[in-house]
């Protein structure tokens, strides 16, 4: 089972771990072989998960995990077997999958925060780091996993453009698919919002203690490479600084906010898909990312005319 699961990306393995543990525990109780494709047992397992009050997404993850480790049934993978699909359809009707966010925050909140800060050279390393991570997340629309994977050895820069090639396997890495390439372009209209200027200042400030190839380093000595959890915490802290409701919006919401704002500003879906790493036929953006910007918090100030 461990060998089969190793064919997945690390993020998928982590996602499948709890599902496979539940399956093994279920099979121990039922006294059945966890590597046997008995359709009755699989349907019982789906019913068992439903009885645990799990949502559609969690149960569907278990279906994918079983498809990975179990033999086919009557020529079908476990996940595509007609009875399994029918069971999942029933789960979907009772507990339809819902995206985490029904709306998203306005990126101008974070941009206005950056405008209120001192120039880069006068920022402490903590706020310079927060600013760089925030601009990278907004401009690249990439996942935290990809931001962590940025290495200086894979950076190519010219006067106005920085190209960052991601060599590490990420969620979208597949045979025959190009690896992500993040393009940072100089923004001459406002240097406080220029990701290129922020990137270069960060390199200058970390040069004296840099011992690692990874771009983002921890704030405290010995300044090791950071984890995805640390980057997520930085992004969430940035949202809090910008007065965005962090009880509702998490680090991944930067991807939602960036792509939604780009679409509303007239950027074509093809360009958004290319930047964010979705295939041209992907329905992910339409289903989960193209959100209305939540402006309820500004309603009162609009009525009172405070923003005029």
Q: Your description of this structure?
A:
With 308 residues, this protein is mainly α. It has two domains: 93 residues, Tyrosine recombinase, N-terminal domain (DNA polymerase, domain 1, Orthogonal Bundle), CATH 1.10.150; 198 residues, Intergrase catalytic core (hpI Integrase, Chain A, Orthogonal Bundle). Helix content is 50%, strand content 6%. It contains 14 helices and five strands. Strand 2 and strand 3 form a beta hairpin. Helix 3 packs parallel to helix 5, helix 4 packs antiparallel against helix 5 and helix 7 runs antiparallel to helix 9. The chain is elongated and about 65 Å long. The N and C termini lie far apart (62 Å).
List SSEs in N-to-C order.
Answer: HHHHHEHHHEEEHHHHHEH
CATH topology of the largest domain: hpI Integrase, Chain A
Helix percent band: 40-55%
Total helices: the number is 14
Strand content: 5-15%
Largest sheet: 3 strands, antiparallel
CATH class of the largest domain, please?
Answer: Mainly Alpha
User: How far is the N terminus from the C terminus?
Assistant: 62 Å
What is the name of the CATH architecture of the largest domain?
Orthogonal Bundle
Shape: elongated
Structural class: mainly alpha
Estimate the mean pLDDT confidence. Answer: 83
Q: What topology emerges from the helices and strands here?
A:
Blueprint: H1 2-5, H2 10-30, H3 39-51, H4 56-69, H5 82-94, E1 103-104, H6 108-116, H7 125-140, H8 144-148, E2 155-157, E3 161-165, E4 181-185, H9 195-206, H10 228-241, H11 253-264, H12 269-276, H13 284-289, E5 292-293, H14 299-304
Parallel strand pairs: 1-5
Antiparallel strand pairs: 2-3, 3-4
């Amino acid at each position: 089972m461990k060998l089969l699961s190793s064919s997945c990306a690390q993020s998928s393995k982590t996602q499948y771990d709890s599902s496979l543990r539940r399956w093994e525990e279920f099979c121990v109780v039922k006294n059945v072989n966890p590597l046997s494709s008995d359709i009755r047992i699989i349907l019982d397992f789906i019913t068992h998960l439903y009885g645990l009050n799990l949502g559609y997404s969690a149960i569907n993850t278990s279906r994918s995990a079983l498809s990975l480790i179990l033999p086919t049934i009557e020529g079908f993978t476990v996940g595509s077997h007609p009875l399994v699909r029918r069971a999942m359809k029933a789960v979907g009707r009772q507990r339809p999958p819902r995206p985490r966010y029904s709306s998203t925050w306005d990126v101008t909140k974070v941009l206005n925060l950056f405008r209120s800060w001192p120039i880069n050279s006068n920022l402490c390393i903590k706020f310079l780091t927060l600013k760089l991570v925030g601009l990278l997340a907004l401009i690249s629309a990439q996942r935290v996993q990809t931001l962590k994977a940025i290495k200086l050895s894979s950076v190519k820069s010219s006067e106005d453009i920085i190209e960052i090639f991601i060599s590490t396997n990420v969620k979208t890495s597949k045979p025959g698919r190009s690896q992500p390439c993040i393009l940072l372009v100089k923004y001459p209209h406002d240097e406080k919002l220029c990701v290129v200027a922020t990137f270069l200042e960060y390199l200058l400030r970390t040069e004296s203690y840099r011992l690692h190839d990874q771009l983002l380093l921890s704030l405290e000595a010995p300044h090791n490479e950071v984890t995805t959890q640390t980057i997520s915490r930085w992004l969430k802290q940035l949202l809090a600084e910008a007065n965005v409701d962090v009880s509702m919006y998490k680090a991944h919401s930067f991807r939602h906010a960036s792509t939604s704002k780009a679409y509303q500003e007239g950027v074509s879906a093809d360009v958004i898909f290319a930047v964010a790493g979705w295939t041209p036929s992907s329905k992910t953006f339409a289903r989960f990312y193209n959100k209305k910007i939540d402006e309820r918090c500004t309603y009162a100030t609009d009525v009172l005319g405070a923003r005029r």
